[in-house]
């Protein structure tokens, strides 16, 4: 849990430790300023079990997702006859970033070693009593990513069944109530809304991001080679049914018209990368190609912030 933040309408009066047998349960007494300016004393039990991450693994070509099933005692005590719950892979973070944590949990629980995830959000799952923030991810999986059977760690008493199910079936399981786990429902609905599991999709407007000047020492022949390579990739993207674009297609004519006289001069720098950043607002996705490039990596970073799809190989593109 993050360090205590100060808010002028909240005064912590006292904290009492009720239990630290598994995680930390405190009784917090505090004063809260109401809208009418009066202060009111309240007490709440606060359970701190750290933060967590969850992920939906999906395969577009098979139209399947990977879920887990395991026994959950709290649900058994509250209406779940068997105590078994179908869920997306998830786990608590262990002094690591959310992305590091979900990569570890994915391999431990499902047996898939994925190399790239996409964060789609985060949420407080039970804000009335639990401090936990859950980080949500999606990632594509394939059979060549399998490293084992999964099932969790024996020393943590995890007995996890790995389930590969058709996407259409799991949506019906949500509707019927067979799937009742909140994080799982949220990620399945995200996949449905975003069309992640559609084999056929509408054409995407895809920015091709690769090296332009990087590694060339501003040699015009090498720069031209980089551009030709990206143009060739763009043609393949077009033939796959999508609409490609290079930032260079917009930036270079503008730079020349604006009077730039040399690579990296003030006019060049004012237009080259900023125009590509602006172009991202008109794109659905980014395809990162070629070798090292700070500029291309910046395009990917900004695209992630904007919630765009990120691809690293042509065969990852959805079929049209």
Automatic annotation (TrEMBL):
Residues the entry annotates as binding Mg(2+): 90, 105, 109, 158
Pfam families recorded: NUDIX
Cofactor(s) in the UniProt record: Mg(2+)
A single MF term (Gene Ontology): hydrolase activity, acting on acid anhydrides, in phosphorus-containing anhydrides
Matching InterPro entries: NDP_pyrophosphatase, NUDIX_hydrolase-like_dom_sf, NUDIX_hydrolase_dom
Motif segment (Nudix box): 91-112
PROSITE patterns recorded: NUDIX (PS51462)
Signal peptide coordinates: none
CC per GO annotation: cytosol
Record keywords: Hydrolase, Magnesium, Metal-binding
Domain of life where this protein originates: Bacteria
GO BP, one annotated term: ribose phosphate metabolic process
Assigned EC number: 3.6.1.-
Residue ranges constituting the Nudix hydrolase domain according to the UniProt record: 48-187
Assembly, per entry: Homodimer.
The protein's name in its UniProt record: ADP-ribose pyrophosphatase
Originating organism: Paenibacillus polymyxa
